[in-house]
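Hi support team,

I submitted a single chain yesterday and got back a structure, but I'm not sure I'm reading the token output correctly. Could someone confirm the output below corresponds to the sequence I sent? I've pasted both exactly as they appear in my results page.

Thanks,
R.
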Amino acid sequence: GHIFDALALPFARDFWSEWCAISAARAQRFGCLLFSAYFMTEARCFTRYLLRERLVGLGADADVYYSYWNNYAAYALTRAKERGLTGNAKVVTRTHGYDLYDERQPFFRQQLKKQTDRSLDRVYFVSEQGRAYYLAHHACGDGDGEKYALYRMGVPDRGLGPVPDGATLRLYSC
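Hi R., thanks for writing in. Yes, this is the structure output for that exact sequence:
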């Protein structure tokens, strides 16, 4: 599987757009291209899994495809959407750390972010700083509208409710 996926990369449109972006950056080209090839190969394997399990394509009945990380899975879902395999379902992702900041990746570059962003219906952020970073570095849109939404911990922020005196507030975070 992985070998054939890697051999197919030169025939993929996104491979060449990634190559152009990496070449323009002029930094650690070989490493960046190698890591992007790995990323695309993982996405192709994940797409095969989605098809085999009928999670996309004929018989799939999802309303929303949600990727907790904005990584190869989110990229695979956007490619499936572009190929018409997700029906009318929305494709959304959350991004917050290793999948957001360039310096958190090998070779200090996020892979295929613009290619992923162009087909996402929503991108959720846990901080305003993360949202601003994404808009400056990875977004295809201008940040207006609802596509780039701030939802702390993945839910709308409704603020803290009143905590009665003497009550204990327990907060669990994973």
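A quick pointer for reading it: The beta strands are 64-67, 90-95, 122-125, 148-150. Let us know if anything else looks off.

Best,
Support desk
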